[in-house]
Amino acid sequence: MDDPHPTPTDLLPEEAEQYEWIVMKSLIDSHEQMMAAMEQHALSSMTTAETSNEELITQLKSAQQSHRRAIEDLDTAIAALREKSQARESATNAFK
Fold this sequence. Notes:
The chain is an all-alpha fold and about 100 residues long.
C-alpha cells in the first residue's frame, strides 16, 4: 500500500539536495505526528461518555501508528545528517 504522506526528500527542490531542509522537514513531520497523537488522546480522555476497552485499544493503535510515522521522519533526518557528514568527509579527503 502506498503511503500518501510524502517524505522530506519527495519535497526537495530539483536543485542539489539540501540536507538542512531534509532535517528540518523531518523534524516538522515528526512533531506533527506527535501532536496529532497527543490531541487524539486528549480528546478521547476528555469525553464525558464512558469509553469501552475496544475503543481505547483502537485509539491506542492509532496513536502507535502516529508515533511510528514520527520515528520514520526522525530516521530520515538522521540519515540525511549522516550522508551530509560522509559527503563532507569525502570532500575533505579528496583535497589531502
